[in-house]
Amino acid sequence: MFDVSEHSTDWTIGEDGRRYPPRTQLDGTPNQASGRSRAQLAELAELINSGDVAREIDELVDDPDLAV
Amino acid sequence: LNPPLPAALVVDDHLALVAALGALVLPGGVVGTPTTTYAWQLRLSQALVAERTTTGALQRLASLAGVTKSEALFRVTRPDPRLLDVVDPRAFVWDVASHRVAHSSNQLAAETIAVARHMGAVVRVVEANSRGHLHDQVVASGLEFGVWRLRGVDGGLTPEE
Q: Is the ipTM of this complex over 0.85?
């Protein structure tokens, strides 16, 4: 078994019980995505849920060994 | 569809990208850092490297996340280990080779299964990756396979309940 808890202490447990990632990358760069507005995050979720990203990846990665 | 946690997670390319960008908010039961495989990382990196003449979905995704496509590629190829763990495939070459031969599996599925088995992890993918060879192989292997539809919350994206 792997030690899956090595970095898990860097995450914050919210009041809602969810685990939130660190707000900055190790190199100090802010995690821009986590700071986006609710509307932008909702749009991001919608884009991923729509399947458009998956269709594009499938088109661009024409390799049976990497096919879903 | 989504077997109960707690468990460690092995995730697909979409969830790995969101995690690498520091925007994956995990349900309480998830143990440790989200993990993906080299094959998922390669698939995503290959798509991010590919040139497009028009604005594509990946570019739109990066823009909505507040980064450029090349920054997204940097985060995926050199992920912050606190946010996303990419497992070295060399540790699993025997398992992957055996699974490929025994089950006519492709590399993506064989690596996902080998890594999830070793970690005692569940596999989570987005809906668009939830049908086909990978799904059939993972389910046939007896591993827990679940689909996450995402929604926005303050601080990132989290699976719908």
A: yes
